[in-house]
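Subject: Re: docking follow-up (zinc ion)

Dear J.,

Thanks for your patience while I sorted out the input files. As discussed at Tuesday's group meeting, I've set up the holo structure prediction with zinc ion included as the bound ligand rather than trying to dock it afterwards. The sequence and the ligand SMILES I used are pasted below, so you can double-check that they match what you have on your end before we go further.
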Amino acid sequence: MKLYVRQSGQHGNGVFAADSIREGEPIIVFSGPVLHRSEVDFNGYHLQIGQTLYLGPSGVVDDYINHSCQPNSGFRDGLTLFALRDIATHEELTWDYSTAIDEEDFSGFPCACGAPDCRGLVRSFRHLPADVQLRLRPLLLPYLRDLYFPR
Ligand SMILES: [Zn+2]
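The structure tokens for the complex came back this morning:
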């Protein structure tokens, strides 16, 4: 899968598809050093993967994929990002950050995704309305699914 990083219309850098990607295809596995919350540089790239666990920067493209409230990619059951629909060549990849973030003290940041149903603010999963939480259920990282939708 060929991906590239360039300036995004949305926010700083973004990640783009160098080739078309079909719905359901795996796109990239997120990686990086596993860090405890106390070790995370919150000014730099980080991805929450557990109640107190994070991935630090991998140094590759997964660090630069932007958020969208109506994303074309998402997680299913781990740290592999899948295409949620067909993605065209040179289209920007996006996923919904609220399917990973669940910090009590995260006040959120303004969203610039431009989706018609944009939530306006990127927030922790716990702070989303119940109907949005239910809609995001299939895309949650495993730790959040276990926490909010135990089997
Ligand atoms: Zn948005």
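A couple of observations from a first look. The mean pLDDT is 95. Residues 3-30+60-148 form a domain with the Beta-clip-like fold (CATH 2.170.270.10).

Let me know if you'd like me to rerun anything.

Best regards,
T.
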